[in-house]
Design goal:
Keywords: Plasmid
Protein name: Phage tail protein
Largest sheet: 5 strands, antiparallel
Helix content: 40-55%
Strand content: 25-35%
Distance between the termini: 27 Å
Number of domains: 2
Structural class: alpha+beta
Number of helices: 5
Oligomer: single chain
Organism: Halomonas qaidamensis
């Protein structure tokens, strides 16, 4: 599709019009497309995973190159705790536990289930339990003396890195950026008249 102002001919546009106006239109169109790309990626991830918009936004960092007209959307962060994925307790089971003094006793422990992906449904965390707002599991299922560790799921960068998410975001940027640029040029040149 051809637009009135072609983004691929920036130098010709700078020679024909005020270079500051062309640069301003280019920067504004980059800003708008960058925000749309971040929203597009967030929606694509939330289509597959039970994760909130706030979790995705917290891990987004935008890198702007000052001399180059490029932007990078960087998603950083570690794996998310499993308690972020709608945890529920399961039926209580009887287990042998060891007190601090070393005596063994029977106790009831509730298991945990989580919903990580939307296409797989709720899954039980093997050997895990839900306590104090977190999902825990011992390193060795048979050894009740081993220290419990918090359980983690996938990371936001790992969710975003899926080829379908990246490909759809790139296609959206290729389609949106020329349209945004032509629209911003129309607007800024119309203001100068």
């Amino acid at each position: 599709m051809r637009y009135q102002y072609d983004i691929n001919e920036l130098q010709a546009l700078k020679n024909r019009y005020d270079p500051k106006t062309v640069e301003k239109a280019f920067q504004q169109s980059l800003d708008r497309t960058q925000r749309k790309a971040a929203t597009h990626i967030s929606k694509a991830v939330r289509d597959d995973y039970h994760v909130s918009v706030a979790d995705i936004k917290k891990r987004l960092k935008i890198q702007r190159a000052r001399r180059d007209a490029s932007r990078s959307l960087l998603y950083t962060g570690r794996k998310l705790p499993l308690d972020n994925f709608k945890p529920k307790t399961t039926r209580a089971r009887v287990v042998m536990a060891t007190s601090k003094r070393g005596t063994k006793f029977k106790t009831r422990r509730r298991g945990a289930s989580v919903q990580v992906r939307k296409d797989t449904g709720r899954q039980v965390v093997k050997g895990g339990w839900f306590a104090k707002g977190r999902i825990w599991r011992r390193a060795d299922k048979d050894d009740n003396a081993s220290k419990p560790t918090m359980q983690f799921g996938p990371s936001i960068p790992g969710m975003v890195a899926h080829h379908s998410v990246i490909d759809s975001a790139q296609d959206m940027v290729r389609e949106d950026l020329p349209r945004q640029f032509s629209g911003r040029m129309d607007y800024l040149l119309g203001q100068r008249k």
